[in-house]
Design a protein that fits this description.
238 residues, mainly alpha, 9 helices, globular
């Protein structure tokens, strides 16, 4: 039964990852998430149902649209695969229990926000603010005796990030503050692990980007992806 639920977790994660690709592409552009259906962004033709199977369809089509033959970004199957793997790891870490649903939702939000911030340098309020309220409610519901740790985690992480925004104008933004609020509301005290990892990995990546001249000191680097990475590690092993 353990392996059965692991496979179910993987399949569910792949399906959720397919939807996250829609969110990542359409939400920053103000487009509907449900209408129209999946279609090629280059030729506009609708994606057939048998070409909409996560990961597998991209491999069968060799990364190209069936109609116009234009390349389909490898990001699509990578997002699907990453979400599937994240769901399986969460299942192995937590087991078949109510906190697993919270972890799955948290991982999905982290992946979508990370890539939206990477592409557009924004962290959507439509995701993180409702997510903070729902995440806090869910975390308290599954662990009511430690309700104060989730409230303190959310407020403390947001206050810490807000202080950095004030001390380092341009280095951080209000979106990072709201994302930290969401992360703390779900992770509680484990948000400290997430923040430590985010700053550590972000610092290493920044040094590498500067050393390879892919960025200069004047360039802005989105911090959301590093927060998301730290958050996912924290929810799995914090």
């Amino acid at each position: 039964m353990l392996y059965y639920f692991a496979v179910v977790s993987l399949l569910l994660g792949l399906v959720v990852g397919s939807f996250l690709n829609v969110v990542i592409w359409r939400l920053p552009r103000g487009e509907s998430l449900v209408h129209p259906g999946s279609h090629c962004p280059k030729c506009g033709n609708a994606v057939r149902w048998f070409d909409n199977v996560p990961v597998l369809s991209w491999l069968i089509l060799r990364g190209r649209c069936r109609d116009c033959k234009e390349p389909i970004s490898v990001r699509y199957p990578l997002v699907e695969a990453a979400t599937g793997v994240g769901f399986v790891l969460a299942f192995w870490r937590i087991g078949l229990d109510w906190p697993l649903l919270v972890a799955w939702a948290f991982i999905a939000v982290m992946i979508s926000v990370a890539l939206i911030d990477h592409d557009h340098m924004i962290i959507p309020d439509k995701i993180v603010l409702p997510g903070a309220l729902l995440g806090l409610a869910a975390a308290v519901a599954v662990d009511p005796q430690r309700w104060w740790t989730y409230l303190a985690g959310g407020l403390g992480a947001a206050a810490f990030m807000f202080l950095l925004v004030m001390l380092w104008p341009g280095g951080m933004g209000p979106g990072d503050v709201k994302m930290a609020l969401f992360m703390g509301a779900v992770l509680g005290v484990s948000v400290t692990v997430a923040l430590f990892l985010a700053f550590f990995v972000g610092a290493v990546a920044g040094v590498v980007l500067l050393a390879t001249r892919r960025r200069t000191r004047k360039d802005q680097i989105p911090f959301g992806p590093y927060l998301a990475l730290g958050g996912i590690v924290a929810v799995l092993a914090g």
